[in-house]
Design goal:
This protein is an alpha+beta fold. It contains 16 helices and 12 strands. The protein has helices at residues 2-7, 42-48, 60-68, 138-154, 192-200, 204-218, 228-250, 300-315, 328-358, 368-382, 386-393, 405-408, 414-428, 435-443, 453-464, 469-478, and strands spanning 24-26, 36-40, 82-84, 87-90, 93-97, 103-111, 114-121, 136-137, 160-172, 176-186, 252-253, 275-276. Helix 4 (138-154) packs parallel to helix 16, helix 10 packs antiparallel against helix 13 and helix 15 runs antiparallel to helix 16 (469-478). The longest helix has 31 residues, at 328-358. The structure holds adenosine monophosphate and magnesium ion.
Length: 508
């Protein structure tokens, strides 16, 4: 344990913590009674340079206590964990100051050339908790833990998760539940909302300090650009556009794409009422508190773009140092708009490329977009299972319909599928690859295993009874989403009937 405590350092030069008190408040976590380990990513332990066996060996109680935020000794004052302040737009409306209301960053771990921030989510109230209790419940913590790791293994940029620790401490949500703490790990937890905070508080010096921190740490090449801050915006545009294409490509709905939940590094961040779609519905809303459907599946890219506008607005005071004073204000707005336009030129081709790969198309044709849209239309009309449709499509043959059944049977309207399959086969005739090579390529981009709601639910129900084996098993399955996993087919199947009314709310 000394090894871990010693490895997590607060306030090293160049760290977010070193930005100072305008950016964060240091405070101890609020202890929880009798913490126990619920889940561990052994792979993340290795990434952080920790021995994963500590979590289950003789020091397991000390491990759980540490990652619950329970002080194993007095926190040295300058090494106290910290909560960061940020603001943001929530559901399209300016929400003012928010901040880490229940997250505390322990510090940074430096290992194998990487610097990673280690953060506890659910570790008690902070100055930014507003009406909240500073806690997270076991249910949402398991979901965040599993999905963070699942997304990483899908190849989608995300914050990671190292551990989940539970406690019997009661926490009130719609019902009484119990508390848990997830240890999240990321190079940075800076959000669009951080920039909005210093902009809206009219603190250009702090705004610049923050932007400099992000540029120096993550985008040093921006310094060579005529306007490094505009280049930073361009990086956010690029990474966000790519992220949106990737989410759309696996049927992932984030659920709460507020600007405070948008990572400046283009990572998937803040897993709340997210969901992977089972039956495809272009307008699927995974957050039942989102009554307007603002964050529906089909709207995510547009919302990403909207959020980038908020970021651009916040960065305006930094733009234009390189421009002559005369007419600078107008030029700055023009330049920022040009950079934002880059979202469209980046996202649309990224999405087409994603869809082309999902369809197993190696060569490019004008009509590919229409072909993909045609499939989405019939998937939507039939509520065909998103993951299985693409996975099973790889079994279809170029020459005849003998391999159609596994995908065709997912459509109630078989005629509609057959009509689309005719076009698809015509298109495949222009492809150089044979069926086996195409199937192999498709199976590297169309996952077989995703964190379906009912799978998470099963693991959660067992964990609530103190049986954590399913959390571990599911994590194992999700670490290899593209592989055939003999014996694990049950994890790739359609959701059972009992799961049809599962609802996920904002309360977590
Ligand atoms: P979210 O939509 O979950 O990302 O949260 C929005 C804001 O509310 C953030 O500032 C969170 O830190 C804060 N928040 C959410 N839940 C709680 C809670 N239980 N206690 C304190 N703050 C919370
Ligand atoms: Mg959040």
């Amino acid at each position: 344990m000394q090894q871990i405590a010693g490895a997590v350092e607060a306030g090293k030069p160049g760290s977010f913590a070193a930005l100072g008190t305008a950016f964060l408040t240091r405070l101890p976590a609020a202890p929880v009674p009798e913490p126990y380990l619920v889940g561990l990513s052994r792979e993340m332990a290795q990434t952080l340079g920790f021995n994963p066996d500590i979590a289950t060996g003789p020091e397991k109680d000390a491990f759980a206590a540490y990652f619950a935020g329970n002080p194993t000794r007095d926190w040295p004052v300058d090494a106290l964990p910290y909560a960061a302040v940020y603001s943001g737009h929530q559901f399209g409306v300016w929400a003012g100051q928010l901040g880490d209301g229940r997250a505390l960053t322990l510090g940074e771990v430096e290992h194998d050339g990487a610097r990673l921030e280690v953060q506890l989510k659910g570790a008690g109230r902070t100055p930014y908790s507003r009406m909240g209790d500073g806690r997270a419940v076991l249910r949402s913590s398991i979901r965040e833990f599993l999905c963070s790791e699942a997304m990483h293994h899908l190849g989608i940029p995300t914050t990671r998760a190292f551990a989940v620790v539970g406690s019997d401490l009661p926490v009130r949500r719609e019902e009484m539940e119990t508390a848990a703490i997830v240890t999240r790990v990321a190079p940075s937890f800076v959000r669009f909302g951080h920039f909005e905070h210093f902009y809206s508080n009219d603190r250009p010096d702090d705004l610049r300090k923050l932007a400099d921190h992000v540029i120096d740490r993550f985008y040093p090449h921006c310094r060579a650009e005529p306007d490094p801050y505009l280049a930073l915006l361009a990086e956010a545009v690029r990474t966000t556009a790519d992220l949106m294409a990737q989410w759309q490509g696996v049927g992932f709905c984030h659920g709460v794409m507020n600007t405070d939940n948008m990572s400046i590094l283009g990572l998937t961040i803040d897993y709340g009422p997210f969901g992977f779609m089972d039956g495809f519905n272009a307008h699927h809303v995974c957050n039942h508190s989102d009554t307007q459907g603002r964050y529906a599946y089909g709207r995510q890219p547009q919302v990403g773009y909207w959020n980038l506008f908020c970021l651009a607005q916040a960065l305006v005071p930094l733009f234009g140092d390189n421009l002559p004073e005369e007419g600078r204000a107008e030029r700055v707005v023009e330049e920022a708009q040009k950079v934002l336009e880059g979202f469209k030129t980046r996202f649309a081709p990224a999405l087409v490329a994603t869809m082309r790969a999902k369809l197993g198309l190696a060569v490019e044709r004008e009509s590919d977009d229409a072909l993909a849209n045609g499939l989405f239309e019939i998937m939507h009309a039939n509520r065909a299972d998103f993951t299985l449709t693409f996975r099973n499509l790889s079994k279809l043959r170029k020459a005849d319909a003998s391999g159609d059944a596994p995908v065709r049977d997912l459509f109630l309207d078989r005629a509609a599928f057959d009509a689309w399959a005719v076009k698809y086969r015509e298109r495949l005739a222009h492809e150089p690859r044979d069926d086996a090579a195409r199937a192999d390529a498709m199976n590297h981009v169309n996952p077989k295993y995703v964190l379906r709601n009912h799978l998470a639910e099963q693991a959660i129900r067992q964990a609530a009874e103190k049986d954590f084996s399913e959390v571990a098993r599911l994590l194992d399955v999700l670490r290899h989403p593209y592989d055939e996993q003999p014996g694990n087919e049950a994890y790739a199947g359609l959701p059972p009937d009992w799961a049809s009314d599962l609802e996920v709310s904002c309360s977590s």
